Fold:
Amino acid sequence: MRWFWISGCVLILAATTVLPGLAQRGQFQPRRPATAFDNPPQAKDEEEQKLLNVLAEMRKGPRYANVSEQDGRLLRLLTEATNAQHVVEIGTSTGESGVWFAMALRKTGGKLTTHEINPQRAQIAEENFRRAGVDDLITVVVGDAHETVTRIDEPIDILFLDANPEGYTDYLEKLVPKIRPGGLILAHNMRSPPPNPDYVEAITTNPDFETTFLLMEGSGIGVTLIKR
Ligand SMILES: C[S@@+](CC[C@H](N)C(=O)[O-])C[C@H]1O[C@@H](n2cnc3c(N)ncnc32)[C@H](O)[C@@H]1O
Structure:
């Protein structure tokens, strides 16, 4: 009886302290039942299959805060659904989100301009884009995006913010005038890590914007429409 009581206490202690800590650090994944919601993306043609294969390979290598598969699928979906012609990304890293965008841009006939401050990551991204056969759709701009975005001289259909969160409001100020009416701002990391409150304030209090937050999966994405 005593042992039963002690092992019960140990189990409760583990469930309430150790396991959530490990889960936070990504070492322990609490089990949840697999559902149809977890089904992987289904390739419609060979090109899509090739890009999904490259993404799977990329996920096996070193990753630097790249988007989750769920977030990547959302980027592709919104880009294709809006028939985007010019996507601008802040924060290329090694190019996973870039490949998701390219999957849609192949269909819309559009292109991606992506900005990265770290030259080594930019180089890996360029190699990945070549490997995926989408380098013709993507321009990688190396440098501090606070400066490099000031050189953008074409209208933007989708702006994807996925770099230093403290810089989101500066990117917003510099780039909103270049986003076409009806275009979108997609802001990554709206759930985890905690978002920049000034940015959240800016996109939720301006009558020119309609914003919603998709926070159930991945790191959370804020979707802001530039009203017509
Ligand atoms: C979260 S990662 C981007 C992940 C990428 N979008 C993906 O899903 O594959 C953020 C990247 O932003 C870059 N970054 C941070 N500050 C930046 C700045 N001021 N200008 C350009 N890139 C910056 C970092 O070097 C890092 O590679």
